TrEMBL record:
Residues 5-284 form the FAD/NAD(P)-binding domain. It comes from the Bacteria. One of its GO terms (molecular function) is oxidoreductase activity. PANTHER family: 64 KDA MITOCHONDRIAL NADH DEHYDROGENASE (EUROFUNG), APOPTOSIS-INDUCING FACTOR 1. The keyword Oxidoreductase applies. The lineage of its organism: Bacteria, Bacillati, Actinomycetota, Actinomycetes, Kitasatosporales. This is NAD(P)/FAD-dependent oxidoreductase. Its cofactor is FAD. Belongs to the NADH dehydrogenase family.
Length: 356
């Protein structure tokens, strides 16, 4: 034992893989996260559709590792005193802090959005709303990015009596290759999703969406327009960028507080030849694993990263695998059909196994 105490806050893809890996080493590790089971956030749209989602117990992931899990929230960081204050009133002193609180839905200051819309974080509640009162209500999903597309497809498939509309400020799947976007639009059409592009939402009311380009009446609104980092890093005085992501060096160490490492959606990780990595489990998990190696002395090299692929589920029956270059720019080729579905399902189901 070195007697060092490492506190990891957050048990998502980045935090849990970091804690599990650091727990193989000699240091004492405390993991602070409210949930008992791994959140597995990339499956929230499946939960909204009432699909069964296997989520391993955190205790099981950490079995045999030198990690104590405290099922509570971090509510304050005292970076000068090197303490994490928790919701249940404890002060946890650390030598090294790993900050991995991830991100949350960003409402974008749109009036009424937080009040009237559901988000991926409220997937179970959304499922209860849609399953509890069968009907023909219109469900408007806001956001033409990956989360909006996955939610719209899943909800349309699960609740075929309802009209699902996918509302986007620009083009739905606009970053995909031509073939990729065409496949997404074709599947959405097949599932009965009505796509409204160039519809910037300016307000959400109890009656639906007020938009540039025409209003969208809807009984249920789901907001998936963008994500923002959890605010604790900025509120505590860690150096952050304009979006609130913590600024880190090439070893994922805070540029303002060298005893703090930041991983996952919370960190603005700048990789040469790519730029700032996007928020994704595909970028979060390798950062958690890298940090575990760094803090247990198994590497001293800077963090390096290349993108491998982009995958979108389009309901249970279909998927898109967009082939990309290492810098995340798209290639023309995509995988669809059974191959695409098997690749996407294999990656998603395999993620919890890779946490250790
Ligand atoms: C519906 C949906 C589908 C997605 N699909 C994909 C996909 O196909 N591919 C992809 O790459 N990405 C996808 N993403 C994005 C991906 O989920 C995130 O980028 C990823 O979860 C980030 O991982 P993370 O470990 O940084 O944070 P998270 O997974 O967000 O984990 C954060 C952790 O911090 C904990 N936490 C939060 N606040 C506190 C606190 N105050 N104190 C203690 N703990 C706290 C949480 O409970 C959680 O354990 C999707 C997201 C959504 C919503």
């Amino acid at each position: 034992m070195t007697g060092k105490h490492i506190v990891v806050i957050g048990a998502g893809y980045a935090g849990l893989s970091a804690a599990a890996g650091i727990g193989r080493g000699p240091d004492r590790v405390t993991l602070v996260a409210p949930e008992q089971r791994f959140a597995h956030r990339v499956r929230q749209h499946e939960i909204a559709a009432g699909r069964p989602v296997a989520r391993p117990e955190i205790a099981r992931v950490l079995r045999g590792r030198r990690v104590v899990h405290r099922a509570t929230r971090a509510v304050e960081l005292d970076l000068a005193a090197r303490e994490v204050r928790t919701e249940d009133g404890e002060r946890l002193a650390y030598d090294t802090l790993v900050y991995a609180l991830g991100s949350r839905t960003a409402w974008g200051d749109v009036p009424g959005a937080a009040e009237h819309a559901y988000s991926a974080e409220r997937a179970e509640e959304l499922h209860r709303r849609l399953a509890g009162a069968p009907g023909t209500d219109t469900v408007a999903v806001v956001g033409g990015g990956a989360t909006g597309i996955e939610l719209a497809a899943e909800l349309a498939e699960a609740y075929p009596a309802r009209q699902v509309r996918l509302v986007a400020a620009g083009r739905v799947g606009g970053w995909l290759s031509e073939r990729g976007r065409a496949h997404v639009l074709a599947v959405l059409d097949h599932l009965g999703v009505r796509v409204d592009e160039q519809h910037r939402v300016t307000a959400v009311t109890a009656d639906g969406l007020t938009c540039e380009g025409g209003d969208v009446p809807a009984e249920v609104v789901v907001w998936a327009a963008s994500m923002e980092p959890q605010p604790l890093a900025a509120a505590s005085g860690l150096a952050v960028n304009a979006r609130g992501r913590a600024l880190v060096d090439d070893h994922l160490r805070s540029v303002s507080h060298p005893e703090v490492y930041v991983v996952g959606d919370a960190a603005a990780v700048d990789v040469p030849g790519i730029g700032e990595l996007r928020m994704a489990c595909a970028t979060a998990m390798p950062q958690g694993r890298y940090l575990a190696k760094l803090l247990t002395g198994r590497t001293g090299k800077p963090f390096s990263y290349r993108y491998v692929t982009q995958c979108l589920s389009l309901g249970r029956g279909k998927a898109l695998v967009q082939l990309i270059h290492g810098d995340d720019s798209v290639r023309p080729r995509v995988l669809t059909g059974a191959t695409g579905r098997l690749v996407k399902a294999g990656i998603v189901k395999g993620l919890p196994l890779s946490l250790r």
